[in-house]
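Encode chain A's predicted structure.
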Amino acid sequence: MREITIGQYIPGNSAIHRLDPRTKIIITFAFMVLLFVINDFAGYVFPIVFIAIASLLSGISVKYMLRGLRPLIVIIMLTFVLNLFMVKGRVIYEVGPLNVTYEGLYQGTFMILRLVLLVVGTSLLTLTTSPITLTDGIESLLKPFTKIGVPAHELAMMMTIALRFIPTLMEETDKIMKAQMARGADFSSGNMVKRAQSLVPLLVPLFVSAFRRADDLAMAMESRCYRGGENRTRMKTLKMTQKDLLAFVATSFLAAGCLASRFLW
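Encoded structure for chain A:
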């Protein structure tokens, strides 16, 4: 549970850390969209190189970001197995009424790589951007929509708090599991249905803990007379620099490569 990297923040003074949060949010969104543009393995060369360069500039290793995949192993393997058996094509091996095909193997591996890159790309955003800065960036990007009644500040605050509390809730879940295992609870034996049923007792204390944390956070904000939205001052004003422009140029090369791999090659 402690291996989740999405929502965590590692303080630093790297080139990626110093980028404007709006730049990182836009680039992350563009990166996610471009991953769905790619339709062959050759196209993945561009996002992999992009992530490698970003990791080098940020000082955060790819190995550390890949740790966030451990809680998602079940989803990744399920995605692979579904594609392996459900995609029709040339048969490699028969398992009863199901067939393992070359096309299924190709599609399953392709989808796994896409999921890995999605997790790594989104993790890099939160690992290099503090929650407060991320809130300001999201609010600034949503500000034009306030004219049509969109509560930009409230949405930005909720999204940031949700991201920030992902690792906190996972750590709380880990503590509850260990406490119940010390009292004789068994979460590892039995089939998948029994394991799912054994997790039900975790939900009540986890929800109680989550509501208690939410109440404590609300009281802390209220006691400090926190008021968001208009007329709220900031210690640091967001400002884009030449480094942000260079980041957008690098992203444009990534986009050109991904589009070329789909439509020209």
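Strands lie at 91-95, 98-101.
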